[in-house]
Specification:
- The protein is of the alpha+beta class and 321 residues long.
- It has 2 domains: 1-65 and 77-96, Phosphorylase Kinase, domain 1; 100-281, Transferase(Phosphotransferase), domain 1.
- It has 6 helices and 12 strands.
- It has helices at residues 51-59, 66-74, 133-151, 211-227, 246-259, 269-277, and strands at residues 11-12, 18-24, 28-33, 39-44, 81-85, 88-95, 102-105, 108-111, 155-156, 165-168, 174-177, 184-185.
- The strands form 4 sheets. The chain has a 6-stranded mixed beta sheet with strand order 1-5-6-4-3-2, with helices on one face. Strands 7-8 form a two-stranded antiparallel ribbon.
- Helix 3 (133-151) packs antiparallel against helix 4, helix 3 (133-151) runs antiparallel to helix 6 and helix 4 (211-227) packs across helix 5 (246-259).
- The N and C termini lie far apart (110 Å).
- Residues 287-321 are annotated as: Disordered.
- This is Protein kinase domain-containing protein.
Amino acid sequence: MTAATGARGDIQLAALDLGEKLGSGGQGDVLRVRNRPGEVLKRYFTDTADGVSMRYLVEFPDTLPDSEREALLRQTAWPLARVVKHGKVVGFLMREVPASFVGQTRAGTQLRELQYLLYPPKPLWGDIVPLDIHGRIEVAAAFAGLVRILQERQMVIGDISMRNLLWSPGVPARICLIDCDSPTRVGMPPVLPTTDTPDWNDPRQQGGPSPATDLYKLALLVGRTLSGNADVRPGQPLKLPADTPEPIVTAVRACFEEAGQPQGPRPEAARWVRALSGRGEILVGPLPAKRVLPPPLPMVDLDGRGGPRGSIPLPPADKKP
């Protein structure tokens, strides 16, 4: 399977040759699928998943332009097909996380979760070496671009945290978003009840995940990734490494401060993409008032179009007054 593989029909659970358990979370286990190379199954602990919302996720990539569809599937473990049993959705198939997103620690193999960029390195981390500021900028910019694709289609990610975004070293550094059954279309129910990772909550959140909460968590992720500080929040001073390019320092700090305001909109994902590009922003003042032209005056008839012209009598030229 390639990253560009699109949505497919439902898969019966009985048709899958399941192998070893690769991981476990609060909602299900991730299992290898021996008869579908390159794919894994997330099998839920419950059969109460919303099947309509899951179908929407599976079909969503095919609604995107080719370049954005490729970017979504390349940078996520997006649901590829619903897995059903007795007519109920019990999980979904997704692509297996590429090996470059897996590190070897003293405790064994571990996913290169974002948390490894938010704390000082430890010997126990083995070959998981935190990225320099340039790699961190690439990770943050890639995620901002992914959020832009989703939010322009009224999709809400919901659970954004240091545990469900993976990174891979390289030029450029790459990302992989996991737990991709949590996104939902605005106005639709989630596949399963949503959760928040502790200390990644939006202080203004009311009524569940929304585009606004995604934007706050995007600011959290960018600020914490670039600073290497797992506790900093929007509105607080953001200390960045000394070798951070100055245009990025200025633009990121402005966005970070704005995202922490007690009210008002947060910076959009597209603005974060620009800020992290180093191109800066052009501030445009208010447009001048629209000029109101006077009504046109009636034309003077100089060509006789209104009838014969009259004459003005003059005295003879040789007669003195």
